[in-house]
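User: Reviewer 2 asked us to show a designed sequence for the structure in our supplementary figure. I'm pasting the structure tokens here. Could you produce the per-position amino acids so we can include them in the response letter?
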């Protein structure tokens, strides 16, 4: 640890650098019921506030015309002298209240409750329409009109950041966009700052269920949604809005939307926006230390403190240099991780295609196998049919042989009968032949 950093730490401890910056003393904070614009920045909140006022007033003049602002009339000191002290005090309080009402501008800076985040309260205008108009102009002209502003998110409504309150409020707030007959594709952009009781997955799940109940035709689309529901929780306040062109305008990032588009600008912008969010979260932590140092510098009026602040300034430069190197290293790491992620996605895609090819091959082999089994079954049935036919022919042949045998036996019987009849006939002929001769011999003997 360097000597300057060690001295800076001792200085903070000695002079109580843990108090909040003077900027927030006496200022109003973000509350339920407000409308406005939530703006994230790159550490320098004061410069961010000034840029935000300039930008918002420039485009508000285009949409709504110049702001009419009248200073309250000052009361005369002579009249106050004529009244007693109590009456004078009452009159002064009354005038202050009236003055505060008249001095309420269309844009007022509020304490957001989070580092590197400012909230500009709006009056008598539509914050979503105004912010969309700004981003549309930057997208068309490609003119970067901000140096420290990162994202500019409209806040059309606010409620308490508890699940029951959010459900009750959003069930009415979202009706103009999602309740039947209205419908649309949507995504949910959720972020919580300085709030530990809101779980991202629980909020998104409950919100998606609420939108689905309003109209089942409302569909989630994470690529090119028609509408984006923005939910930003800071401490105990939930800021909500419904916007269009959230993806086109790079998640409402003023730095990115003003960049010239390239062939891979869509994906690159998305990666850059994620890098900006990571960077913003890191700088939010660094901003706390910056606030402590700022308080220390504001309270410092002694020569010893001036010397300490000088050394702190030198240490800061070293720290900024170190942070810059660390930031560059993180960006390189993010780039490397992105390339590794892309490589893995390609590998997954290749493996999926190979898997699909194998499944097609298995399917083809199965169909071929089924075809062969059908062919074998058909051949078997044909073979069984032929065997049945052979068996039938054999039985028919055996029947014919039996018939031939029977006919042969019948023929043999007839031949035997014919032979017997012939023998009988021959016997009769022999008998007839012998009988006359005997008669002749008898007659001859008689004659003799």
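Assistant: Here is a per-position design you can include in the supplement:
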């Amino acid at each position: 640890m360097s000597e300057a950093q060690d001295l800076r730490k001792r200085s903070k401890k000695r002079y109580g650098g843990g108090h909040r910056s003077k900027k927030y003393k006496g200022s109003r904070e973000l509350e339920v019921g407000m409308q406005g614009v939530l703006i994230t920045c790159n550490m320098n909140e004061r410069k961010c506030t000034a840029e935000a006022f300039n930008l918002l007033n420039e485009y508000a003049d285009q949409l709504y015309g110049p702001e009419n602002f009248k200073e309250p009339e000052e009361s005369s000191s002579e009249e106050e002298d004529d009244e007693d002290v109590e009456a004078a005090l009452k009159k002064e309080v009354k005038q202050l209240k009236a003055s505060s009402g008249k001095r309420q501008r269309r844009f007022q800076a509020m304490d957001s409750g989070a580092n590197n985040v400012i909230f500009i309260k709006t009056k008598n205008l539509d914050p979503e329409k105004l912010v969309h108009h700004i981003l549309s102009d930057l997208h068309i002209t490609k003119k970067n009109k901000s140096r420290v502003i990162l994202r500019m998110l409209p806040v059309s409504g606010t409620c308490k950041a508890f699940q029951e309150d959010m459900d009750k409020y959003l069930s009415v707030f979202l009706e103009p966009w999602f309740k039947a007959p209205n419908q649309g594709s949507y995504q949910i952009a959720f972020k919580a700052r300085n709030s530990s009781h809101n779980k991202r997955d629980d909020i998104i799940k409950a919100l998606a269920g609420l939108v689905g109940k309003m109209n089942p035709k409302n569909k989630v689309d994470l690529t090119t949604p028609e509408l984006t529901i923005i939910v930003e929780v800071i401490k105990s306040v939930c800021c909500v809005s419904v916007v269009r062109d959230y993806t086109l305008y790079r998640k409402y990032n003023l730095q990115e939307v003003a960049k010239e588009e390239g062939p891979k600008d869509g994906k690159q912008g998305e990666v850059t926006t994620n890098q900006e969010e990571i960077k913003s979260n890191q700088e939010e932590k660094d901003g706390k230390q910056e606030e402590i140092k700022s308080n220390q510098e504001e309270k410092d009026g002694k020569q010893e403190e001036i010397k300490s602040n000088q050394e702190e300034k030198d240490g800061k430069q070293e720290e900024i240099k170190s942070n810059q190197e660390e930031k560059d290293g993180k960006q390189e790491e993010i780039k490397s991780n992105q390339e590794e992620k892309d490589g893995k996605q390609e590998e997954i895609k290749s493996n999926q295609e190979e898997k699909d090819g194998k499944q097609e091959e298995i399917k083809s082999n199965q169909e071929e196998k089924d075809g062969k089994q059908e062919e074998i079954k058909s051949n078997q049935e044909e073979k069984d049919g032929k065997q049945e036919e052979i068996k039938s022919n054999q039985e028919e042949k055996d029947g014919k042989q039996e018939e031939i045998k029977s006919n042969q036996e019948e023929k043999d019987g007839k031949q035997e009968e014919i032979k017997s009849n012939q023998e009988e006939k021959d016997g009769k002929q022999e008998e007839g032949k012998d009988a006359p001769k005997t008669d002749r011999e008898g007659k001859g003997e008689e004659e003799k």
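For the response letter, you might also mention the following. The CA atoms of residues 11 and 308 lie 7 Å apart. Strands lie at 36-41, 107-110, 117-122, 149-155, 157-160, 185-193, 219-220, 227-234, 237-243.
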